[in-house]
């Protein structure tokens, strides 16, 4: 029987989400443990009352709210900045990952190069394969950081359509600085789109972090992606956004699926932005716990990278064995076979349960 689907689909791995097992703590998917605030819930319920109508496919109100928040940040970071983000420089999508998929499809005809660090977000190769692109995976440096010099060299290939950067990097948690990013952008041809995935931006406490929004006017080939799934705690509603030049956003909007961001998601995100300072203050607790867990793991004897995200990374060749061992202890983490284990930073109680469990691993 002739297959109904493309032959190459058989070689594309399916995305594997973190498992959920009754009675076990789940620290595998980088989720926020706190539920939504009443203000967000009320907004969602009010929006659902109008679900007989299609949502605003342009997410007009949400884009305006995002622009306002970003401009507040720009002023806070640099009072003398001339940078300003307009709503027309923002595209909202069904999670930032869907916008990345659209970007690859829009910039890469079949056979074009997608340059990415590896290991990085596991959905990147899948999205590249789906677009029938050629994957150029540049190994991370030994410390888990992107090898930006080699990635910039790879971007010189005239067949390159897009470069994917993840900062802080998922799953290693490592970061690069503002200076690193500027030097990278100066090396990359202006005809190559650079997509900077900042899903974990709000957990980065290094003073050298990239002020990416300030760079958009100087580098029209740069786009920045952020999400409401992490620090804002709206993972189940799937809403993210991209910021770039007006031309980029106009072209990207042509391939974004109409009405992809639902009424409830848009309403929740707008409401969350009214609570922005309160919600982002929660990241301080996560950062404190990240530091405590990192030190505790190192004291036990584990190697742990310096993470600036809401998770920590343990490079391990026995990742599968360690993951299986922790699962037996009712602790669910995310193992990447042969590479390492990613552990979400959770509440102090769940973090302690994890530390107690991993301390008993016989092959520390």
TrEMBL record:
GO terms for molecular function: histidinol-phosphate transaminase activity; pyridoxal phosphate binding. SUPFAM superfamilies: PLP-dependent transferases (SSF53383). InterPro entries: Aminotrans_II_pyridoxalP_BS, Aminotransferase_I/II_large, ArAT, HisP_aminotrans, HistidinolP_aminotransfase, PyrdxlP-dep_Trfase, PyrdxlP-dep_Trfase_major, PyrdxlP-dep_Trfase_small. This is Histidinol-phosphate aminotransferase. Its cofactor is pyridoxal 5'-phosphate. It is an enzyme of class 2 (transferase). Its EC number is 2.6.1.9. It comes from Lawsonella clevelandensis.
